[in-house]
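Dear support,

I submitted the protein below through the web form. The confirmation email said the job was done, but the results page showed an empty box. After a refresh the structure appeared. I'm attaching both so you can tell me whether what I see now is the final result or a partial one.
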Amino acid sequence: MTDIQIAKTITLAPITKIAEKFGVDKESIEMYGKYKAKIPLSCIDKNKADKSHLILVSAISPTPAGEGKTTMSIGLSEGLNRLNKKTTVVLREPSLGPVFGIKGGATGGGYSQVLPMEDINLHFTGDFAAIEKSHNLLSAIIDNNIQSKTNSLHIDPRTISWKRVVDINDRALRRIIVGLGGTTSGVPRETGFDITAASEIMAILCLAENLMDLKERLGNIFIGYTFDKKPIYARDLKAQGAMTALLKDAIKPNLVQTIEGNPAIIHGGPFANIAQGTNSVIATLMGMTYSEFTVTEAGFGFDLGAEKFFDIKCQSADLKPKAVVLTTTIRALKYHGGADLKSLTVPNLEALKKGIPNLEKHLENIGKFQVTPIIAINKFASDSDAEIELIMNYAESKGIKVALADVWAKGGEGALELAKQVIEVVEENKSNFKPLYRWSSSIKEKIETIATEIYGAEHVDYTSKAKAQLIRIADLGLEHLPVCIAKTQKSLSDNPKLLGRPKDFIITVREIEIASGAGFLIPITGDIMRMPGLPAHPSSEGIDIDENGEITGLF
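What the results page shows now:
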């Protein structure tokens, strides 16, 4: 059965029942139909949240075969609930780009899903649309100010770094010219579109702690410079109030349910190769307020989403995770060991052995944050007993807990052993979270610490453009911000072709973007795409709807 076929066999509980199970008064939630709701920010209690055990689910370096972090996160939360540990899973919202493109949705799979999966993967509660409108409002205000003869800040159009966004993969919009059509249609300039998940406003929403913090961060968005080199921020355009008004509902986290009828919170969706790659601070604190255990995930491999989760989100919101579940698949390790993509279902102990160094490096990285790791082997039908045993023996030799998790086929039942090990780690209380670097360190020191310690690079090179931007950032007084390195997810290096555990490589920072609203700097390495394109045969070709309104082909 497909994911959507499995989902349609489940009888959903009214969201009011899920709210009661979560612990929120059903009268306080804001209904979005029968099975979705928003929870007001007033329900967050930081003192209660501090008593919850926060568990991060991450993964080894991802491959085209997929590793299943979201599926593992949902399955683990089901398993913990089966062991009578009140648990909430807190996830990101899917972007329509991958949904209609090639990667698919972000609601888990099999018997480890969040529901209603069609709604969540499509428009959901309109959060992405609100972010898109808020972002593009600022774009319109910028161009209007350039055009104006009576209310102009004299912005130099050549310095504007703010683009527009749309939540669809559309390569034709990567670079465009606006302002054509004569003197009444604006000032012509080059700009472009990013996908909505890459918007700085998405990152801001996911780091804001309340509505006023959101407004202040929106005002801090760096736009560009005037002709006399004065920096311009969104607050100079008096844009932050209207932008925040568009986000007044989007800032509230969304309550839905898992396939086994447990609460799930889904909110925000920044990508991990260009932003922090994890759900909102507000959603995480909401889950922690009402749960003994809170399970969340960070995008792509540990070197990307998890590093940013620890060094940016945890430092910003004063969160202290108790364990990291490192999602691992035998297929992925064989791929990192040199096996061809088409042969990953064929037993291959030699390729598996050669791929283990990738797992080993991610485990070492978890240790750098002084948090206890647990290896979760995401089971696939093609996994042989010998291959499973090899990973088990490796973990035992390193003194690391490991569990075989069959969450796609069995849901919470398939995660019971993993859940027991998570509970053991929490009860042992050996984790003592410590960030990798201090925000007060120099920008170069922060970049080079991540590149050498987490990626394993020999050293870091900077282009002349990046060096000039370092000086500019210092002049703006933004050196204290953390760094959110944009890097390929396919490799520990900035070269997607270097699989496994590459060594003796150089990381090249080609430019550094300022995300002063979000509160971080973005050193860009390699060829990072902020507006993906559709494949020759996008997933949208297989999606349809019948006369009864039933959607088909959605995974």
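Response: this is the final, complete result; the empty box was a page-load delay. The longest helix spans residues 127-147.
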